Amino acid sequence: MNVANDKKVLIVGAGLAGSDAAYYLAEKGINVVLLESKKINPNPAQKLKTSAELVCTNSLKSTVPTTAHGLLKREMKALGSLVLKIGEETKVPAGDALAVDRVLFSKKIEETLNSHPLIEKKDCDVDDPIERAKEFGCSYIIVATGPLTTPNMESWIQKYVSDDDFYFYDAIAPVVDADSLDFSKLYYKDRHKELREDDVEGADYLNAPMNKEQYDEFIDELASAEKVPAQNFEELKYFESCLPIDTMALRGKDTARFSCMKPIGLEDKEGKRPYAVIQLRRENLLGSSFNMVGFQTRLTYKEQLRVFRMIPGFENATFNHLGSIHRNSFLNARKLLSDDLSCKKLPNLYFAGQITGVEGYTESASTGLYVAWQIERRIKEQQVKKWPLETGLGALVNYVMTVPKPSPSNINFGLLPPVKLEKMRGKRSEKKKLKKEKAALRAEAVLSDFFAETSLYN
Ligand SMILES: Cc1cc2nc3c(=O)[nH]c(=O)nc-3n(C[C@H](O)[C@H](O)[C@H](O)COP(=O)(O)OP(=O)(O)OC[C@H]3O[C@@H](n4cnc5c(N)ncnc54)[C@H](O)[C@@H]3O)c2cc1C
To answer: How far is the CA of 364 from the centre of ligand 1 (A)?
Structure first.
């Protein structure tokens, strides 16, 4: 293919996103300079010297097309993902999931990048990507430095890109499955808003009230429960507005009651104000799960299950995911980036991977492909094109670009527009399964039309 281009792309970070972006661009005939810091300044989670290191589990999650991860993988494959190609070559048995031999996986990615004629890979802890782009004669930059971006680069981002909109911790509140709650003990109501008898489910918040005795006991258990110790690279410095619920419990009996468990404006149907309230906010458009507002926590998973099941209505609660707090650098994409994930202040500089506010290996790699795809269009003088919301990648990028309070997310069906089912009888679980199948089929059809419409070569 003849790509008339004298443009070079600088990529900072040869992790999941950076590796996939580099390979995509190079395969399209675009020159890439790839700079990676780990040999000079490895972070404490890194054990290997090679690219695209999986720092924790070796699983890239499900490959089944009717799961959200499977759907995203299908789209990444369509874009020629190196991560998935090598993932297949180095896979180990893991049922429906794609799990890999992490050492071989990283080694093969490294070899592929090193041997590609259009990729120049160098060791460098980048402290100023604009200067490095000048040095290597690059017109575009992708910053894909991940959740543990080096301090040099963090300072640069803070100074030139983000102002105060760069986060250093990921405080994840637990998400509880709606099906597992006892709704007879809960009530819908938004703070200071009248309850409308005819439309209580129209309220945004579901509330779990507590009396004094229940609250006191709950706070005591939160304070004494076992916590996950911080990693050696994680200093325990929290934003005051984002304190873990267990830290609040340690600060004093009433701290939570004057913060996220405040009952004011949440009087129940009889007009009675509870002593304290746990507020739950719909996590997705389907309302199949609820976020426990302000309940980010360092409690171990086992202790979270024990303590949270003390909440009235939560006796049999199951969780979509539990709470956590960990070191994670990410931007407020909605404020700082454009739809193609380029920086509003510096339009030739793009961000990809976890630093954009997605979470997970596959999700990070997929945004590397997304940005590379957008840069290829730009080099070929095509307009920025948003991906359709019905696709996994479109839904994921839409999430980071619209979520009011940034909170990194994995891909899940709740990010896609809901699908409607014809009226049918049957179990809830069957309907849920059918909805996922429909959403997956819809994504496939929409993607095929989108590629036909945006093809650069017809
Ligand atoms: C401790 C930990 C455990 C995790 N566990 C999982 C898990 O089990 N499953 C999962 O799906 N996700 C997990 N994640 C989340 C995340 O999805 C992965 O970290 C993923 O690798 C992110 O991809 P990325 O490409 O954005 O960043 P990374 O894969 O981290 O790649 C970023 C690269 O940039 C390099 N770099 C950083 N700063 C510079 C600089 N200034 N100059 C040059 N290079 C630089 C780094 O060395 C690194 O190689 C974990 C994250 C952490 C921190």
So the answer is: 9
